[in-house]
Specification:
Length: 737
């Protein structure tokens, strides 16, 4: 099998979707190119090539033949710092063309008003023709080279219109057309650059140097020289340059560049940190695990850049429309000449047609939305997923780690033969002090939340599958399943059992508690009620006597109920919980949220359910944690991974939420709807504007000069409309500009 290599080649001169199609076509024709994608947002091509058949010089030639260029210095992966002769000459011609055009614009407008006719008459036609050629050379040459390859560019029609004006002696009007050709190019470049701004802002966050510890000495080196395993030092106010694990120090880190979360987090030894995040207070020693493009931040940038490869259906339609639009306009111009016998009217038809606006209408909005979303911790891997979200009618949701916190919490404390719930919890937490079981951590976490003092056990024994036994303050304390306690423990002694709900870390005091109140109920009824809710029970005994029961469960994330309600308000009514847990646990979670459920599912069962709904013609959105749900996330029309930036989450789903926050879920749906509304407005505006312009030009109501000026307006309209997506805000009432 032939060796394959991935090449990333920067390309200059692309300012619209049509440009990327020309470059892609030119590169795809090279022998040895297995696949190629060209990205407007990052101004580059990514090729999979056979290095024995194709190299960089061949790629450069193909790009130049397409009318674009690969900057000098790419061979060494260093950006060119000098302006080559071709670029310099092209810039001079462009400047001259705009200067002459600006002057002549005033002249021609004056002539149109009947004021300056004598001025243009004094300039001989050959001089005027030379001005047109000189000013329009960069565009004319690009159009000519494309025509020789059988390609039609956005400026092909304008060039033909300008030359037609020269041919009938209207060289001044042709010069103004050239002027607006340059204006149009700059507007298109500015429009595309505005959409790329969000991506560039993300890229600029990555630090370029790192302070590495070599044999006890700190040395500042370029990030390209840092290797996995190196120890990196980061001081207050500096950005972390690598992904890694903290080995020393404590700090407050702003992770908004990765997660979109504005609140900083506290990190210490053992914590994982990410490149491009900011150390606000404290210093850190970090053992490097990933560098450069392999970091979480690097992969975020790559996905945002390559989101263009997954184009929405409406974008494909616009691309096809653009391909047919130019020949249709040429036909209208020809008919105008045949019917009206007015070459200037025919030229005005060619000039006013703005095909680039159709090509820009969708990708500019998509780029703006995807870039802005990435800054908020929402990674969207392509426009077609936004389009699918708008059509979505079925939402399937995983439970563990998605709807729930993914860890057990103590939800109720039943006092049987103890003086208080605090006594039950304190003794249980003391006995579990050295246990590594997740339920033991839940008990200790509940005790910390109540600020209960814990005692060191004098002895400690662990019985896997049963529980623990420890001697605490002279008493034998057991904490575990029903099999750990003696049957006689269930005989009630003293006052009837009571229960309360301990505060959970992160939960506000005084919040509503919808759990049942078991005060005064017999133990057996309490046990049956808690078990019917799918909760795990820990029995606590002291010297063989049952003193209390702790109920543990994987609790719903606090923001989930509000998020589910917001999703319903957006019109998505069919919401179903899918889980591998038993029916009892699934029913408890689903009923509390008012959604349907299916339990006891394997990963392949979830895929089958997704296919079941898709077979009915429904558009399915699947939300999971990106690990065991990866197959279903891939099968769904849109998979949303709440993976907190894990590898599997980033790779499995087309949409990734970089922080486990359910308030982002309805936001994703709202982003999709807002984006598609902007796309629809762009297309409608462009279609109406071009139809109006063509009609006025064909009937002679739009002079050539003003036709040239009018063709740049749709690009400006698309830019202004799409820019609203860059100012996206999410508030209590939804997004706003």
């Amino acid at each position: 099998m032939a060796a394959r290599r991935i090449l990333e080649v920067p390309i200059e001169g692309m300012d619209c979707r049509e440009c990327t199609l020309h470059v892609r076509r030119a590169l795809a024709e090279l022998a040895g190119v297995k696949s190629v994608e060209v990205f407007l947002s990052s101004q580059k091509a990514v090729l999979e090539v056979d290095p024995e058949l194709v190299d960089l010089p061949a790629i450069r030639r193909a790009v130049e033949q397409a009318g674009y260029r690969v900057p000098e210095g790419v061979d060494s992966q260093e950006p060119s710092s000098r302006l080559d002769a071709t670029s310099f000459v092209r810039s001079i011609f462009t400047l001259l063309g705009m200067v002459f055009g600006a002057v002549l614009f005033i002249v021609v407008v004056g002539e149109w008003l009947g004021l300056l006719a004598a001025v243009t008459e004094r300039i001989p036609w050959p001089a005027g023709f030379a001005i047109v050629l000189l000013g329009g050379y960069p565009v004319f040459w690009k159009v000519l080279r494309a025509a020789l390859r059988g390609q039609i560019l956005a400026h092909t029609l304008m060039s033909v219109g300008a030359l037609a004006a020269v041919a009938v002696g209207e060289w001044a009007a042709a010069a103004v057309v050239v002027f607006f050709m340059h204006v149009g190019e700059y507007v298109e470049k500015f429009t595309a650059e505005r959409a790329r701004r969000a991506v560039k802002e993300l890229t600029s966050l990555a630090p370029q140097v790192a302070r590495v510890l070599y044999e006890g000495t700190e040395k500042e080196v370029p990030i390209s020289e840092v290797s996995v395993g190196d120890t990196v030092i980061v001081r207050p106010g500096e950005k972390i340059p690598v992904d890694g694990e903290v080995t020393g120090g404590h700090a407050t880190v702003d992770q908004s560049a990765i997660t979109g979360e504005s609140m900083p987090v506290e990190v210490g030894p053992g914590a994982k940190v990410f490149a491009a995040t900011l150390v606000r207070l404290g210093s850190l020693q970090i053992r490097t695990t990933r560098v450069g493009q392999d970091t979480t931040f690097g992969r975020v940038i790559k996905m945002v850049e390559e989101a263009e490869a997954h184009r929405a259906e409406v974008q494909r339609i616009a691309d096809k429309f653009s391909a047919y639009y130019l020949p249709v306009v040429a036909g209208i111009s020809f008919l105008t000449f045949l019917i009206r016998r007015d070459p200037l009217a025919a030229a005005a038809v060619l000039v006013v047609a703005c095909s680039c606006s159709f090509a820009l209408a969708t990708p500019i909005a998509m780029l703006a939305s995807i870039g802005a979303s990435a800054r908020r911790g929402i990674l969207i891997k392509g426009g077609r997923y936004l389009e699918s979200l708008v059509r979505a009618d079925t939402l399937l949701v995983d439970k563990t780690g998605t709807l729930t916190l993914g860890r057990p919490e103590i939800t109720e404390i039943v006092r049987v033969n103890a003086s208080s719930e605090d006594e039950v919890l304190a003794l249980a937490a003391s006995a579990e002090r050295y246990s590594e079981h997740p339920l033991a951590e839940a008990v200790r976490r509940a005790a910390r939340a109540r600020k209960l003092p814990l005692l060191d056990p004098e002895t400690f024994e662990s019985f896997p599958g049963f529980g623990v036994r420890a001697r605490v303050d002279g008493h034998v304390i057991t904490v575990g399943s029903r099999r750990m306690v003696a049957p006689s423990s269930f005989l009630l002694k003293g006052e009837p059992p009571t229960t309360s709900s301990p505060p959970v870390e992160g939960q506000k005091d005084g919040g509503e508690d919808e759990r049942a109140d078991f005060a005064g109920a017999p133990v057996t009824r309490i046990v049956e009620s808690l078990e019917s809710q799918g909760k795990t029970l820990l029995y606590v005994t002291r010297d063989g006597e049952l003193i209390g029961i702790l109920a543990a469960a994987d609790t719903i994330r606090p923001e989930v109920p509000r998020a589910i309600e917001a999703i319903r308000e957006l019109g998505l009514r069919h919401i179903e919980l899918l889980t591998g847990d038993n029916e009892r646990v699934a029913a408890s979670i689903a009923n509390s949220l008012g959604v349907r459920f299916r339990g006891n599912l394997l990963p392949e069962d979830k895929i089958a359910i997704v296919k079941e709904y898709q077979a009915k013609g429904q558009t399915v959105v699947m939300i999971g944690d990106g690990i065991n749900d990866a197959p279903a996330l891939s099968q769904a029309d849109v998979g949303i991974a709440m993976g907190g930036g894990t590898d599997v989450a980033i790779e499995a789903a087309p949409i990734v939420l970089m922080r486990d926050d359910w308030t982002l879920v309805p936001e994703v749906f709202q982003i999709a709807r807002r984006t598609m509304r902007v796309v629809g407005m762009n297309i409608a505006f462009t279609a109406v504007y071009n139809m109006l312009g063509l009609s006025l030009a064909a009937f002679g109501y739009l002079p050539l000069v003003f036709a040239a000026a009018a063709q740049s307006i749709p690009d400006i309209g698309i830019l202004l409309n799409s820019s609203r997506l860059l100012r996206y805000r999410w508030g209590k009432r939804g997004p706003s500009s």
